[in-house]
């Protein structure tokens, strides 16, 4: 039961004007506000949320482990996911309880490690075909290129659909969707959100496009995953639509953002890039990578892990507490919202010396950080179902592209991060591509 009065037991802004100011900041720039809150109040911050509830920002590995794993049955996806649910319905990312369990059981086997290696040749073929179209010396938007490739991978590998041509429009639709989700967080209820979304033309257009995309996939010849979703689990048409949209969106945007950030960071850290090129040249010589090569490319994987440390696409994981809890010394009343932020955890100086520097060495050899100091794919039973697929794909794509091309950020350009549902480049990422 939520308590009737606000109990302030942890450092944080006081109820009233002070808290309202922070919420105003949060609505404008959530990531910057999380960072500022932690800097001001420490690793555990309590922000009053209305009259009776609190929001907790928790930034230590033991907090993450408690909320996501040790006492995970006390937590459900937070109210902040509800605006996303208006779009994704009962897909894996946003559903709960028996519906979530049924969907997860159905989808999980497709993402088993021994299974996903079969997707490797297709991933490489798609990347190779994309870079073959890059004219030497031209400046391209790396974010858009990566989105094209990863949407094509998910479309063809998982659903047997040709979606590369849809990537620009899908990217725009996703942008509007993410903005709507952030604004929707501050609206009172699902009906209000649905009403708003239906009335705003740019949002309606974005949603219509995503609905058409799903229809195209569902009506297509199908891949293994689609067949499974259609025939294996007795999903209703609505559930099928929700799951296809969830997997299409969750399955490409995050990987695309990770790769765009990776190429940007490599362009800023030439020594790390040279080592990457050396590794790729030595292991692959003049052939494209195969799934078996992934283990022989430790620096390539370390580069990706370090990019996801600095720029975790899932930058915050939020849950609502069902019952009163003690999160590693933080008293959390029932009804509170708890944010465990990979962005914060990945910068904790106790585990990450020089946290703002790009140092893939951190991920060579046995890990020195505690397990829950690094959470790019979350943890516990809601851990990313596509983590293995994403790492395989990102490693193969990075190696395939690096074998033949180098990407340099256009001079004088700096690309900001935009944190909405995911942490992605705020605009185009102009990079010059040259043949090596
Ligand atoms: C670099 C790429 C990726 C990152 C960083 C990432 C990150 C995450 C994280 C952190 C979560 C947990 C969210 C939470 O606990 O609230 C998650 C869940 C999920 N991800 Fe990923 N993901 C990536 C790629 C993928 C891919 C390739 C797929 C599918 C093809 C996918 C599908 C999903 C789904 C369906 C969920 C919900 C799982 C559940 O709740 O059962 N993701 N992802």
TrEMBL record:
Enumerate the cofactors the protein uses. Answer: heme
Give me the residues that bind heme, please: 384
Q: Which family does it belong to?
A: Belongs to the cytochrome P450 family.
Cite a single Pfam family from the UniProt record. p450
Report a single Gene Ontology molecular function.
oxidoreductase activity, acting on paired donors, with incorporation or reduction of molecular oxygen
Origin species: Actinomadura spongiicola
Does the keyword section mention Oxidoreductase? yes
Q: Which UniProt keywords apply?
A: Heme, Iron, Metal-binding, Monooxygenase, Oxidoreductase
Q: Could you tell me what this protein is called?
A: Cytochrome P450
Q: Cite the InterPro entries for this sequence.
A: Cyt_P450, Cyt_P450_CS, Cyt_P450_E_grp-I, Cyt_P450_sf, Cytochrome_P450_Monoox
